[in-house]
Specification:
Layout: H1 10-22, H2 27-37, E1 48-53, E2 56-58, E3 61-62, E4 74-77, E5 82-87, E6 90-94, E7 98-102, E8 110-120, E9 125-129, E10 133-146, E11 158-171, E12 179-183, E13 190-192, E14 202-204, H3 212-221
Parallel strand pairs: 8-9
Antiparallel strand pairs: 1-5, 2-3, 2-4, 4-7, 5-6, 6-8, 7-8, 8-10, 9-10, 10-11, 11-12, 11-13, 13-14
Amino acid sequence: MSSVRVPVSPQRRHLLGALAAAGLLTAGERLGLIRAALANGANPVPPGLHRLKGAVTINGQPAREGLLLKPGDTVVTGAGAEALYVIGQDAFLQRESTTVRFGADLADFMRVVSGKILSVFGRGQRNITVATATIGIRGTACYIEQPEKGGAGATAPTYFCLCYGEARVIPTAAPQQWETVITSHHDHPLYLHDDKNMPTMMVAAPVINHTDAELVMLENLVGRWPPFYGKSSESYGR
C-alpha cells in the first residue's frame, strides 16, 4: 500500500516554525493544531478551548479542551498554567496566574483583572477594561500585563502594547488625556498609570513578553494572517 505525500505550503512551514520558536506546543499538539487551523491555507478552527496547560478554571470549575466560552464567563489560569482559546473572530493566549472576565456584549467585552494575555480581534470595536484605563480596540491585536497591586497597595501600572491596528485609550484617573493609538508593528507600547499626581497617565514602554510567532499562531486560529506577515519582522520578548 503506497502512501500519499501531502505538499506543505510555505505558509504552513512558516507557522510550524513559528510555533516551534514560541515553544507553545509539543510536536503532537502542534501537528493536531496545524491540521485543524490550516487544512486549506488558514481556515478558522471551531470556537472554544484549544489547549490547556496546568490548572485552568472557568467560573471556578475545572476547564476542559473543547469547552465553549460564553458571555459572563471568568477564565482563571493558575501558577505555571496557560490557556489557548477562541471566541468568535477573536483568539487568546492567556498566560499563568491570570484572571479574565468576559462581559455580556462588545461594549463590555473583556476585563483583565490581573495577569498577562495576548489577544487578536476581528472586525468591529470591543471595549477592554483594565485597572487603569478603558481601551476601545478595533480589528487589531494587543498584549496586556496587569499586576494585582503597586507599591503600598496602590494600583499598579498596566502594560499595553497595541501590536497593530487602532485603539482609543482612556485613562481612568484622567479621562481628558485619552489618546487614539495607531500602530503597524509594536510601534507604541505604553505603561498606563493611575496616579493623578503624574503629569501624564500614559508613559512610553519597551516591547516585552510577546512574540510575532504567537501572533501568527493566534491569527491563524481564526483564519487570518497578521498585517506584518511577509514583511521583515522580529520576535519580541520571549
